Amino acid sequence: MPMKQPNAHGLKRFAVGLCGLAVLFALVGGLAFVTGKAHPEGGAAYKVGGGVMIVAAIAVLGTTVRRWAKWFFAVCFLMAIKAFFALVFGYTISQPRLTVNRALAASVLALLLVMLFLSYRYVLNPPHSTMESVGIVAAVVALGTGVLTEPNLWPLVGGVLFLGLPWLTKMRRFHQE
Amino acid sequence: MGNFSLVGIADRVFGTNARDTFLGNLIGGNDVTGVASIFTGDDPTGSLASAVSVSAGNGLKNGIGTPLRIGGNTAPAFRTLFPRLGRPAQSLLRSKGLSTALGTVADVLDFKLEVDVALTVGLLAACR
Question: What is the ipTM of this complex?
Answer without folding.
Answer: 0.84
